């Protein structure tokens, strides 16, 4: 899978990496390295995994050191999406001590975070691999990191939901309440939607779903916080006329039963908003 993963171009990554470096360097740079290191020597650092997981963000680490020092040499030993184990070499970077230590924390923060997302995603993908369901992230991303976090989901074998509010029309409970009900909100949405804009409706009950199906407007239905039995009935009612997506309370433990109920998509917000970072270390030695 990893060799088919489309990498994000540097122009999309650079603003995040640059901002992180500027935040870390402050107004005077790395005063510790400047005070105690001989910067005329060349050192080599190794990124190694310290636990089992799926790696993501190698291009972010590469760009971190390239922005800090154009003479630094970064070499990846694996590709994003690779299953890794403790002690496994992920990449090396060679250059001046101040360059490597100056970029170390930013590179590790971003790569560990993205690898954590890829690892969590891979866990749920594996749990439902016997079903047709795809695992998707949501817009519950950290500000400024959406493109990178959604990329990490893909590195873990998942797929992406909307990137932004203008990607598609997703009608939720508050829209329904403010617009005057399901019929009113769906009619308004269809009237305003462009011919390439999909419409998805969130429903909390089978009664809401039945009303919406009678209108035949939505392209997808988001089955929110339903039990597996309710989801199974909802899928039967939809009968292939639209995409069936489940959300709410989806974990590696609950995902199989939900996926087995027949949905097309599992929508999992915590993949990006509360995931645990993968432990990755950077060890440096002089050449």
Word description of this protein:
- With 287 residues, the protein is α/β, with parallel strands linked by helices.
- It has 2 domains: 10-118 and 275-286, Aldehyde Oxidoreductase, domain 3 (Alpha-Beta Complex); 126-267, Aldolase class I (TIM Barrel).
- The protein is built from 11 helices and 12 strands.
- The strands form 3 sheets. A 6-stranded parallel β-sheet has the order 6-11-10-9-8-7. The chain has a 4-stranded antiparallel β-sheet with strand order 3-5-1-12, with helices on one face. A two-stranded antiparallel sheet has the order 2-4.
- Helix 8 (206-215) runs parallel beside helix 9.
- It is elongated, with a radius of gyration of 23 Å.
- The mean pLDDT is 96.
Features:
single chain, 287 residues, alpha/beta, Aldehyde Oxidoreductase, domain 3, TIM Barrel, 2 domains, 6-stranded parallel sheet, 4-stranded antiparallel sheet, 11 helices, 12 strands, 43% helix, 18% strand, NadC, pyridine nucleotide biosynthesis, EC 2.4.2.19
Q: Count of helical segments? A: 11
The CATH C-level name of the largest domain is Alpha Beta
CATH architecture identity of the largest domain: Alpha-Beta Barrel
Order of helices and strands: HHEEHEEEHEHEHHEHEHEHEHE
Derived structural class? alpha/beta
Tell me the number of structural domains: 2
Question: Alpha-carbon distance between the termini?
Answer: 35 Å
The low-pLDDT segments are: none
For the CA atoms, what is the radius of gyration?
23 Å
Roughly what fraction of the amino acids lie in strands? Answer: 15-25%
**Largest sheet properties:** 6 strands, parallel
| Helical proportion, percent range | 40-55%
